[in-house]
Amino acid sequence: MTKAKDSIEESRVDLRGVKVYPFTDPQALIDFADRRKGILVAVNAEKIANANERTRAIINSNIGYCDGVGAVMAARGKGAKAEKIAGCELWLKIIDRFHASGRSFYIIGATPEVHAATIVKLSATYPGINIVGHRDGYLKTDGERAALIDDVADKKPDFVFVAMGSPTQELLMSDMQKRHQAVYQGLGGSFDVFTGNVPRAPKWWLDHNLEFAYRLLRQPKRIRRNLVYFKFAWWLVAHRF
To answer: What's residue 64's pLDDT?
Structure first.
């Protein structure tokens, strides 16, 4: 197992200071995370382009994986055999694999309404799921944030899912990790997708790696946020990785 772990560690690819594991199979990623523990960070063009010293440190000391086609293309350009692993699917694969064995989960994030709907749907979809704690993503004070970290440390879940958007969720998970070792995963808006509050891109868009464009068409106000993709595209064309 040590040799296998060393091999995985050595396979990491440096993408402008952000190090990712080029997994080709979500189950292999789940196996690795279950052995190693740590924060699963979905790496895409936006996270690479907007990375700063602190977010790079969190990703590089944990488990960054390719969640966007830009990250996949950059990793392949450096010789890795990476595949896109969608974070909004990965967390459900984790639950599907471990819920029946009694492994425990802590669910954090989204609005109070979406959060409540998420808990209801998880309980219905995965009978007997062991959710040891949960709360919505609206932490209004430092005291509420500290109380949440205390509760996670006290409940000691095996898996913690945090849907709060980046970099807020990564910073929170990093602080939780200092108190309790587990598998953490940041999920952005995945609870909205899971509950049907926000539709995911149709299959054609997914198959053609155009999920970001579909989101932009539905939410034009994302245009400023998506300007980073032009910078990233230039890096790819100019081999700046």
So the answer is: 98
- Residue 227's SS3 state is coil
> Helices marked H in 43-141 — which ranges?
45-49, 53-60, 69-77, 87-98, 112-125
Q: What is the pLDDT of residue 193?
A: 95
**Residue of 109, 118, 116, 113 lying closest to 137 (CA atoms):** 109
Residue 133 has pLDDT above 80, yes or no: yes
- Of 82, 12, 16, residue with least CA distance to 239: 16
Q: Is there a contact between 125 and 152 (Cβ–Cβ < 8 Å)?
A: no
Token pair recorded at residue 117: 């709907």
Q: Is the Cα torsion angle 210, 212, 215, 216 positive or negative in sign?
A: negative
Is-cis flag, bond preceding 167, omega within 30?
A: yes
**Amino acid identity, residue 106?**
Y
pLDDT of 2 strictly over 60: no
